[in-house]
# Entry
Amino acid sequence: MKIKTIEQSFTVNYRYQLYFTSGLFSIDNPLFLDIITSFKTGSAVKLLFVLDKGMLVHHPGLEKAIAAYCHQHPSALDYTGCMVVPGGEEVKNNGTHVDSVLEAINSNRICRHSFVIAIGGGAVIDMAGYAAAIAHRGVKLIRIPTTVLSQNDAAVGVKNSINIFGKKNFLGTFAPPYAIINDSEFLKTLEQRDWMAGVAEAIKVALIQDAKFFGYIREHTRQLRYRDLETMQYVIHRCAEMHMQHIAQGGDPFESGSSRPLDFGHWAAHKLEFMTGYQMRHGEAVARGISLDLMYAKLLKLINEEAFEEIIGVMEQLGFDLQIPVKGKKEKALLLEGIREFREHLGGQLTITLIKGIGKKHDVHEIDKDLMLEAIHALNNRVKLKVL
# Structure
């Protein structure tokens, strides 16, 4: 039997930009208008805003400011309204929130030449981005992240997702946003937990890519902990820059392979979030996950005691609680299930990123579970002794 084949390859070029500003929806700030008109001129572009309820508590005038800004430019900005959704991981755990955004996209006739603008923390941006990506096979998205973690990491990439089956980010898409806008005004009203949580992601990317950047964080722990905005803005800028460079130059932006170095410390972090009912912030879980993998790397003799203590010391000075909150065999076994789920999420060969020095990533393809249990015990004992 003769088989005929038609084969064709093609390349799609993606481009998106990250902007930094302050007071985005002040009437005299032209940035948002310029971004929309860079997409299309000649007729007004429909805009649907999805707002984080938790963020609005601290910025109660934002809805009015958005409406006033859009009404100031009616020939370019067609404001269809704002919808408010819960903040935090709750918004990703319940599919009804995706449905509500899809309903708003439909009822407001948001098309592929319109924009969904997501304003909030990383979870809201993930959820709204997922809805935008599946509506009409892709509605344009602008992300306006409002936390440190979303400004330096979560909103910077090309992924959108929600949680299901007790697994983080099980449903999702790869869909680059049209633009990301970091507004420093949102950082000023963050709770301390949300101010600090994002620094864990900065430590992560520094440890696997840039020893000099880790040195900057080490030298500025006090400024970061006590909310120096200029220092934090530098950390956000550098972290986001490295994140975007990895996506563009890493050779695998849509993760078709089995290596995700930007998920250093995340196999445990994702499981810890789930095990605590998402009461633990993502960045808090990442700090613990990094510390656990560092202890494991030390037991493997990939890193020495000096490097381990230097890194852990920085995280402690920043105020992170590094205790792994698992007790007894059952909870420890449940945490280690995160390794299997991580491999399943990646597909193919298990690849866990560790480090063999500050700024030097090192991938391993298997985890010695007995040694990882020893790492949990050793890390928790160290933290206890430090407290005593």
Observations:
- The two ends are 77 Å apart (CA to CA).
- The beta strands are 17-21, 45-52, 77-85, 115-120, 140-145, 159-164, 167-174, 179-183, 352-357, 360-364.
- The chain has a mean pLDDT of 93.
- The CA atoms of residues 302 and 356 lie 5 Å apart.
